[in-house]
Amino acid sequence: MEKIFNLNALVRKNINALKPYSSARDEYNSETQDMVFLDANENPFNTGMNRYPDPHQLKVKQLLSKIKGISTENILLGNGSDEVLDLIFRAFCEPNEDNVITLPPTYGMYEVLANTNAIDVINVALSNGFQPKVDAIIAASNNKSKILFLCSPNNPTANSFDASKIESLLKAFEGVVVIDEAYIDFSNEESWGSRLHEFPNLVVTRDTFKSIRFGRN
Ligand SMILES: Cc1ncc(COP(=O)(O)O)c(C=O)c1O
After folding, report:
1. Which residue would you say has higher pLDDT here, 33 or 174?
2. In sequence order, what are the residues at sequence separation of 6 or more whose Cβ sits closer than 8 angstroms to the Cβ of residue 176?
3. What is the C-alpha to C-alpha distance for residues 90 and 44, in angstroms, rounded to an integer?
4. CATH architecture label of 58-213
């Protein structure tokens, strides 16, 4: 029988219990074009930058949605990938309790963020050909393993991971699988963003604005 994956069961309890913060922009949504929110430090003089930014960044998400082929509700914008990686730790990993899996040699920031968030790191070295060792990764994980980081193309080895190995890990790993595609624009591989709907435990991080600047989709 196929396993039912419940993402909410992996989220930290205090995060699951949060009520979304509501700003003045949310509360007066239909009138905001004409209103000036002095209590949000808006400036009544139209300088082009005098309004509080949309907390949901809807217009830029709509633009990105068309370019990337990903629906707006599946997009989270951050101040670079590192901020989003930190948010993923904070959403899923209970400090001093949970662990994450990284595959050295790989991007060093996963370990820095783990240390910042008081999360253990289980290292499972890549194979001699710099590919993930699927069986060893699953054997090393336990019920406190919340995130598996797959950096593809990998920093510093530059190769992409085999799609079949990534797919096996997406199916077998019981936590969240983060595919870090910071360098996807230098590769001929297709982004795993196109397969988000297939895997409920998949998160893909990308450096969107760098890729727009390079003129690539
Ligand atoms: C693999 C990888 N992921 C993420 C990042 C962070 O990217 P950003 O500058 O968007 O935070 C880097 C930066 O070196 C990286 O090498």
Report:
1. 174
2. 7, 10, 88, 92, 146, 147, 148, 201, 202, 203
3. 37
4. 3-Layer(aba) Sandwich (3.40)
Q: What is the pLDDT of residues 125-174, one digit of tens each?
A: 999 999 999 999 999 999 999 999 999 999 999 999 999 999 999 999 99
Burial label for 177, CB within 10 Å (0-12, 13-18, 19+), is buried
Taken in order 90, 94, 96, 99, the sign of the CA dihedral is negative
Please report the atom of ligand 1 found closest to the CA of residue 155: 1
Six-digit token string for 114: 């783990």
Q: What are phi and psi of 50, to 5 degrees?
A: -100, 5
Least Cα distance to 202 among 210, 191, 211, 217 occurs for 191
Cα angle, residue 83 at apex, residues 79 and 84 outer, rounded to 5°: 100
| Mutational pocket test of ligand 1: of 103, 107, 179, 211, the residue with most ligand atoms within 8 Å of the beta carbon | 107
Distance 193 CA to ligand 1 centre (A): 17
Task: Give the domain ranges of the chain.
Answer: 58-213
192 lines ligand 1 (CB under 6 A): no
Task: Give residue 208 CA to ligand 1 midpoint distance, Å.
Answer: 11
180 CB under 6 A from ligand 1? yes
pLDDT tens for 70-87 read 999 999 999 999 999 999
The whole-model pTM stands at 0.92
CB proximity list for 136: less than 8 A, separation 6 or greater: 124
